[in-house]
Amino acid sequence: MPVEFLTDEQAAAYGRFVEEPTRPELERFFFLDDVDRDLIALRRTKAHQLGFAVQMCTVRYVGRFLVDDPLDVPWSVVEHLGAQLRIEDPSVVKRYTERAKTAYEHAWEIRDAYGYHPFEDAEWGRKFRAFLHGRRGRALNVERLGALGEPKSLRWLRSITAAMLPKIDLPDLLFEVDSWTGFLDAFVHLGDGRTRMENLKTSLVALLVVEACKIGYTPVIDPDDEALTRGRLVHVDQYYLRADTIAAANAALIEAQGRVPIVEHWGEGLLASVDGLRFVVPKRTINAGPRRSTTTSSAASPG
Q1: Is 1 inside a domain boundary?
Q2: The pTM is what?
Q3: Which structural domain range is residue 198 located in?
Q4: pLDDT (tens digit, 9 = 90+) per residue, 176-200?
Q5: Same structural domain for residues 31 and 120?
Q6: Is 152 domain-assigned?
């Protein structure tokens, strides 16, 4: 394939993964529809099913099969596909290449199923050049696109989703979460590590809202409430809100989430996330698996 028009970096990056796909890219190129699943289901083992899915989606994303090593992909790709296929241990994919011909045979099956053709295919090369020649005389259209507007179904979905959200203030939500997890107990005094202040949690919740919303003290100050006076808030901010207490509170939230039944369906928490959920995250490599001695709540990070 001619690459004279590409920079050296672009040419080196062609046809392989140079970085992890973003979440939108995973959802676009690595989503398995019913046709994909029917084809994958013909494989005999979990390793073959997952390896087949990796090859199927790799060619969609990078434009070619990874002939030298079909598993030379970011671990997030394997996890994403494994979750869709309900494969609890995605590391089984490492057995996919034990038989060298398996990946090669699967690649040809994927080509036939989806009508892919290699660049060196002379017949399809002529068809592609004819297609480009037919479009050559068309003028470039730079007119502004008109707005399509929101469909009724989108407005309906937005309204019904909004109606499902609880009508609750943020401070009330923090108090409720504390009643489940006790995370506010992690904020202890700098000096003696104990808590002797009355209504301390009220002050802490106010300060957490201040920090999260970047609104400053003024909106939460109440001179008639001792826990919300400016002096009290300044004192609590200085002596209770520290990096170590915030980390301890965060660990309490992570541990509590691990006890939620639905978490068991997320592969034992070995997935990273960006939607606010917290997961234990192992080293991101296809050749390494989680170690029980290290994948504890202390190793977790917020999404």
Answers
A1: no
A2: 0.43
A3: 170-244
A4: 999 999 999 999 998 776 666 889 9
A5: yes
A6: no
Domains held by the chain: number: 3
Instruction: Specify the pLDDT at position 96.
Output: 94
Residues 229 and 265 in one domain: no
- Is residue 138 one of the residues assigned to a domain? no
**What residues in the chain have per-residue pLDDT under 70?**
1-6, 11-13, 135-140, 193-196, 266-303
Per-residue pLDDT tens over the stretch 143-181:
787 777 888 889 999 999 999 988 889 999 999 999 999
Q: Are residues 110 and 37 in the same domain?
A: yes
pLDDT score recorded for residue 104: 92
pLDDT the model gives residue 252: 93
Does a structural domain hold residue 137?
Answer: no
- Please write down the HEC assignment for all residues of the chain: CCCCCCCHHHHHHCCCCCCCCCHHHHHHHCCCCHHHHHHHCCCCCHHHHHHHHHHHHHHHHHCCCCCCCCCCCCHHHHHHHHHHCCCCCHHHHHHCCCCHHHHHHHHHHHHHHHCCCCCCCHHHHHHHHHHHHHHCCCCCCCCCCCCCCCCHHHHHHHHHHHHHCCCCCHHHHHHHHHHHHCHHHHCCCCCCCCCCCCCHHHHHHHHHHHHHHCCCCHHHCCCCCHHHCHHHHHHHHHHCCCHHHHHHHHHHHHHHHHCCHHHHHHCCCCCCCCCCCEECCCCCCCCCCCCCCCCCHHHCEEC
